[in-house]
EVE domain-containing protein
Amino acid sequence: MNRDLSYKILQDIMTMDDVIPDEHDGSYELVRETVESLSNTDLHRIDIPDLDMLYFMAVGTWKGGVEFRLKKIEESNLPIEEKIRLKSIFNNVVEKAKDHLYENSDKHTWSVGMFGTGFYTFNGKSDKQNAQKFISLCIRIKDLDDDEEIFNIAEETLKNGIKGMQAASASIVLHCLKPNVFPIINNAMIEAAVLLESEDVIFNRPNQLTTYIENSRKIKKFRDEKCKFKNYRALDMKFWEVGKLEEEKYAEIKEEEKPYEMKKETKNMVNNINYWWLNANPKIWSFNDIELGESISYTSRNERGNKRRIYKNFEDVKKGDIVIGYESTPVKAIVAIGHISGEYDGERIWIEKDENLIEPLEYSYLNSIEELKNMEFFQNPQGSLFKLTEEEYEIIMDIIREQNPTIGAKTNETYTKEDFLEEVFIEEEQYENIINLLKYKKNIILQGPPGVGKTFVAKRIAYSIMGEKDDSRIEMVQFHQNYTYEDFIMGYRPVEEGFKLKYGIFYQFCKRALNDPHRSYYFIIDEINRGNISKIFGELMMLIESDKRGSDYAIPLTYSENKFYIPENIYIIGTMNTADRSLAMIDYALRRRFCFVDMEPAFDNLNFKGYLENKSGDLSNIIIDKMNRLNKAIENDISLGRGFRIGHSYFCIDKETITEEDYNNIIKYEIIPLLSEYWFDDFDKVIEWKTELLEW
């Protein structure tokens, strides 16, 4: 999105009129009254059905319908009198919606509720304890008016998360309860968030419920200081409008110019298609063995030549039909989506894989959904190809998209080499060298002393190669001594029922990259030398090599018989602090798989000098002179050396000016403590440099 348009949209946001909740939609009243009814219920009785009921009071009636919600009320643990009261309120709201008395409707259609959903129950996703935890939060804050008090209570409750809830699902309920306190952080908000970055609204893991209040405070600060509206629904509607504009813009792009994700979406737009559920036994074949866009054949007869069960399903298959790919091990789950690329020829069908699921959809959860109980596969799972009704397919896809959202049709802020050189203080020649090394080796480590901006640089290297600020293609993790293979790749984790196989952050990132093979993805490992590299990477140590990428080098993993490989479009950028004496040097096995790039203090860089002069005037010359002399002393110290010098980022502060007071604070509270560690056995030298740095 160009900057002029971004500026205009931002101005529109700041001047938007407010939205009056009960005039806009009936879900505000329904959520309030549902929480009121729950407050009159014994907390020990509250369970998953009550969380379902509360959640669907915020969700639009186009999901499930009116009777579905009345059934949720009936299945709840509310006292009889509260069920009667709530049903009456719900029916009154529905009648008002039918009479078009709410702003959130038009004269042709009616609905209650403002938000969509990707699932129909928390059963299998959450548990009784977490249902009680979330509902207790709603009850505690329902009568409070002070925003900060509400935030503090919510932050304490949500800091460890609510099982089965992400920011999107929790925020729509909290918003309907307190529309001027809780923003809606859904896909529309996340995709349009770049518009707010110029106002210092920079989200921290926006999908996560654990950071929801942190992100809400940032939005609140912007709203209170710059905007007219109070109800965050106004912002939500604006972001949906922006999203539609982006989609319309993309719709005008010629087919051959469309991005990969859009081609994939349009490929399946076929009328009168069937929907199929295909079982794979990884001991024989696996969806993981199929490349994205690759077709495989599947015979209608088993290894003994006998017809497979429900043989007629093979005869009904048509080209273009959609296939849900299911595997029985290591976890029973839907793992892929594909389509029929070749019709039944009397012996076999052909299936092309369109998408790997980053978050597989587990059998245990699907089997708990009432609307799927009559599914052909659940009635008798013996066989391999099962028919799905359109409704069953849509329910499954809703749940899949809740856990595996597609990449939206959006444009990101452009980011060029010139942008990089303007905000990262290195020379152009070094920039070109870093880019060439990363493209050649696929793995680099930025090493240098504290304060040279290694982590900052790593992300912007990725931006500059992508040509845009696309955080959906970047993942960052920080290694530490307790970080394990199970965190990074996969491993069994304790759950209520025993142990469950969980996929790690790098495994999931590789799946994301596999779904988008025509674009580059960047995995950033901060403090890479703090972890036990051999244990964390395990058998993948070989696969990260630039010439060992791709399916030809796929290998089975420790906890899975399925073969796995690292896609060719993944680049790994590590950072390493050369002044950390508590760590041993990284071993040769890792060293030979990475190129190492030295990051230097930039006190002599012309761009940094200009930056510092703009912020501090004549003080900039004093700062540069003193820091250069300090770094020379550190470099010449036989017990320290170049790797212990002080970096320039200590003076890259988020203020328009750097005053003498700012400088003194940086020296006293950031640099002197570091020097005290360096010269822990020479206190006189620390005092000498403290005097030298603070006096002139």
Remarks:
- Residues 108 and 623 are 68 Å apart (CA to CA).
- Residues 253-271 have pLDDT under 50 and may be disordered.
